Amino acid sequence: MVDTQNVIAPLLEIKDERFDPTKCAEYELLMELGAERLRFLVLDSKKKRVLYLEDYLIGGLPSEKKWANWLAKLSALHPFWGSNLWKSVTVSFNTPYFTLVPEAYFRKEYVNSYLSLVQGDLFETDQILHREVKRIEARNVFTVNKELWEWVLNTYTLQLPAFIHQTNALIEGALALSVLDKEAVLMNLHFEDDFVTLVIVKNDSLLMCNKFAYKAAADMAYFIMFVLDSLQLKPAEVKCRFYGETTPYSEDYQLLQKFLPHLSFGKTPETLVLGEAFEDVPEHRYYSLYTIPFAS
Q: Matching CDD domains, A to Z (predicted)?
C-alpha cells in the first residue's frame, strides 16, 4: 500500500461488509501508536460496530524522522486513513513510561517532576501529555515521541485529536467490565513484544497498574506472583485474563497455568459489535484497541 524502498503492507486488514469509506464523517478513528507499530480501527459509534481494522509493523526503516516520513506516505496513499473528515480521532500511545497521579493532587506545572521519578532525565524528543482516568479520579501522565504527536496534530486538524496512553484504555476497560463480577479480583495481563502490562481491579477500584519488560517467561511469572504477594492476594482468589500478542501455546501462558487456577483468554468487550469478517481474529488480540472507547 505504501511504496518506500519496498512495499509496506499491513500485517492484517479486515473490512466489515457495512464499511463505507465515503462516510468517514460518521465514523470514529481509533489508533494505537508504538515504537514500531501502528494499529487502527474504524468505529460506527452509533451502532458500536467495528467496521475496519489494520495493523502495521514499521521496523527496518531509517531512524531519522522515521515516523514522520512513513506516516506521511501512508496518509498520502491510503484511501481514507489520512482523511481529515472523521467524526473524531483518538490516539492511544503505547510507550513504556507513565505514572498515575490522584486528580486532587495533580498540577500541570509538576508534570516533569512526576515523570522524572519513573523515567529519569527527559529528552528533547519527548513530549509530556496527560489524560484523565475518569473511573478512579486520577491523571495519567506520560511521555510520547514529539515527532508523532506533532504529525497527528498537523494531519487531523478539523477535529482536535484526543490523546491517551494505552494504560488509560486498559484501566478504563478493566473497570468498566468488572461491573459484571464486582466481588472478584480481576487481573488482566496484556502481552506484546517483550512487555506485559498488568491491571488488577476489584469493586470498581484499581489495585495495581504496571508495565514490565522481560525476556524470559520465568521473569514475567516471578513479577506477577510478586505483585500478588505484595497485595496480599492468593492466586486462587484471582481471575486472570490474557490479552494481546499471545496464544494458549505460549511459554507465558503455559507457565502461569501452573500458578493461577482461574486463568483464561479474554473476550471482546460486549459493548462492541464485530461482524463475520472478524471471526478468524482471536478475541483477545486487539483488546487494547477495543478498549479505547472506554477512555476517549
A: ASKHA_ATPase_BT3980-like
Contact call for residues 267 and 177 (beta carbons, < 8 A): no
CATH code assigned at 55: 3.30.420.250
Owner of C-alpha cell 460518521: 26
C-alpha cell at 181: 463480577
What 3-state class would DSSP assign to 3? Answer: strand
Beta bridge partners of 128: 143
| Number of folded domains that form the chain | 1
User: What b/e readout covers 79-99, taking b as 16+ CB neighbours within 10 angstroms?
Assistant: ebbbbeebbbbbbbbbbebbb
Residues 16-48 pLDDT 10s: 999 999 999 999 999 999 888 999 999 999 999
State how far the Cα of 75 lies from the Cα of 2, in Å rounded to an integer: 9
Q: What is the pLDDT of residues 201-245, one digit of tens each?
A: 998 899 999 999 999 999 999 999 999 999 999 999 999 999 999
The β-bridge partners of 197 are 190, 211
3-state SS class at 19 = coil
Tell me if 4 is assigned to some domain: yes
Q: Which residues pair with 199 in a beta bridge?
A: 188, 209
Q: In this structure, is residue 250 part of a structural domain? A: no
Any idea how long the chain is? 296
260 is a domain residue: no
Q: Where are the alpha helices (DSSP H) in 103-197?
A: 111-119, 146-155, 166-177
